[in-house]
Amino acid sequence: MEKSFRRKAAAVTFAVLALTLAGGGIAIAQPSAKAPQAAVKPTVRETNTQPPVTAESARSAKAALKAGGVTTMAAATWFTVVNANGTKARGTGTVIKYGPGQYEVQFGYNVSAGAFLATISRHDSCCIPPGGEVGVAPRLSTPNGVYIETRNSAGVPTDRGFTLLTHTP
Predict the structure, then answer these.
(1) Diameter of the chain measured on Cα atoms
(2) Tens digit of each residue's pLDDT (9 = 90 or more) over 108-162
(3) Nearest CA-CA partner of 75 in 137, 151, 15, 147
(4) How far apart, in whole angstroms, are the C-alpha atoms of residue 120 and residue 122?
(5) Which pTM does this prediction carry?
(6) Which of 126, 142, 143, 164 makes the best surface tag, with the fewest CB within 10 Å?
(7) Cα–Cα distance measured from residue 2 to residue 15, given in angstroms and rounded to the nearest whole number
(8) Cα–Cα distance list, 59 to 1, 54, 56, 70, 140 (Å)
(9) Distances from the Cα of 146 to the Cαs of 92, 129, 137, in angstroms?
(10) What letter would DSSP give residue 100?
């Protein structure tokens, strides 16, 4: 029965994650009418690139994989709550802060085939978090890492607290 419950819980978690991601794509719809050029604000240039993996980050990732000791595992979901200054408030993983709004979370297992979901948040139960945006992607050249980038509402990279949900099949 416990095994059946685990499978159902993993399926429900994955379904919620998929619906959240699908719903987010619908919410980003752009208006069809274009504003006059005089009223358009200049946009922030997005690079859409991750900072290079540092030697220290690579060493940390290898050490985390070695310490994790997991070779095969069933589907699982983990979370990490990170403060704006790059310190981990709670959850799993090790956090590395690269620059304004640039973070990496490393785990003791391979997450490259997983799904990731992040949201701007606070580490405590007080207050609504500041407005902003968050992007998440697998970390380049680091199979146990996830790259997160936070921005303010104008699209400028800014330190923001966030919660990362990681689901591995």
Answers:
(1) 64
(2) 999 999 999 999 999 887 888 899 999 999 999 999 999 999 999 999 999 999 9
(3) 15
(4) 7
(5) 0.62
(6) 126
(7) 20
(8) 41, 9, 5, 18, 14
(9) 12, 22, 6
(10) T
